[in-house]
């Protein structure tokens, strides 16, 4: 896997088994902000589940099916970003991300997403990146909007959350569109 500096104090790098405790502690300290949008936090009940997540991410990367990276600020894990599934025949991927509560509001996810999208279009030669967010999750929706993604539509009741079903906003970016926007960043 790769390590990618984003700016002086921020880096993307792979999660390793030695990061399981830090990953779990970040999730535990951020449950109040993550749980409404990310049902998987209910299954993350200890370091063992964090180790499983990291091992699964490594397997998917080795199989060329997904890429997951930790987002680090000053050598502290701040969040996770990745391509859930890479569809090589369509040259497309869906990006997902989350950030620990104490790291919110500083543009870290936008910075990481920009780098991940560059990597997808330039290094992986993908043609399309998609971001899906619950329509009521304004903070998550702000990321693709800030990066110039096109809102392509809504998926009704796309995900079962704690308090019912959530509709998803679907945002898309094509390689040719990103090339045109890239100099603006």
TrEMBL record:
Annotated ranges, domain N-acetyltransferase: 21-176
Pfam family, one: Acetyltransf_3
PANTHER family: RIBOSOMAL-PROTEIN-SERINE ACETYLTRANSFERASE (PTHR43441)
Protein name: GNAT family N-acetyltransferase
